[in-house]
Prior knowledge:
Blueprint: E1 4-10, E2 13-14, H1 16-19, E3 28-32, E4 40-42, E5 48-49, E6 57-59, H2 69-72, H3 78-86, E7 95-100, E8 103-104, H4 107-115, E9 121-129, E10 131-132, E11 135-136, H5 147-158, E12 171-181, H6 182-198, H7 214-229, E13 234-237, E14 241-242, H8 244-249, H9 256-259, H10 269-306
Parallel strand pairs: 1-3, 1-7, 2-4, 3-6, 9-13
Antiparallel strand pairs: 4-5, 7-12, 8-14, 9-12, 10-11
Helix pairs in contact: 3-6, 5-6, 5-7, 6-7
Amino acid sequence: MLNRAFFIVFHKGIAPSLTRTDSLTDMIRYFGVNQDYEKYVLTSEGEVKSLKDRDDICLEYHLPHYDSSLQANGFMETSAYIHIYKNKLHFPHEFIGIAQYDMIWNDDAIHLIRNQNQADVVLAKTKDIIFLEGQWHRLMYVERIPLDYIIGSYNRYFKSNHTKEDLEGRNLTLWQTYFMHRSVFEDLAGWLSVLVYEIYPWANRPPYETHWGHLGGITERAEAIFFGLRKDLCISEIGLHHTSDVVAALKISKDHYYSRQSPANKYSIKTLRQNTRKSISRLKSLALKIRFWPWNLKGSRENSGRK
């Protein structure tokens, strides 16, 4: 099904037979993040095998455009959005989906995703209301997340003038699980590609949370604000559900989210800013190389032929 692609994000292992994605080969792509972990697949027979022989796997750290600082700094699944966007993996598909490795696909969800063809409809994990009667939903963690700054960043990027009151009565979408039109994905991922550099390192330092992974929690809520402010879009429940059974079968522990400090708390602000500038400079240099790569390749082949 060429007009839609659904990326399953994982950092260690996948279990297609348990999540029921093994039969969706025309649509599913497994997207591996974080080069620090060895990747594997749990087969239907319960065996752990290498991913080397699979052609439905994409590892972000093998892509032409790759920024290792996104994982190092704890942006987690958000790096998938950015790397898919920067490497144009969302083309030529008209609809793009992203979910986690531990979500169960049921028949209703599969039918919904296969048949959703409206550009103004977004399928998502929804829970309650994001902002109601002047109050944020408790899962937006007002004390831990710079929500006003996020809205300001949104306004700067999209040249708008929203306030939190514009979120009144809108659905709360969390868990970074979405199925959307390509144009919506480009808007979201384009903004996230800017926001991640705006909030590091200060949003991962006191008075905010200091552990690795907190920045991923911030961008997760930024996505919720994005969809809350996009009143041109209709948000519907996607029907995918997390399960601890998959996590247990893959022998994955999530303790690392809180067991170590973020790099934002290991160095001075001055050093972190210098490193960020160096990273951006390297990315710009790489972008130029990628831009001219086809011509260089052609020239190399011609020179090789003359020899």
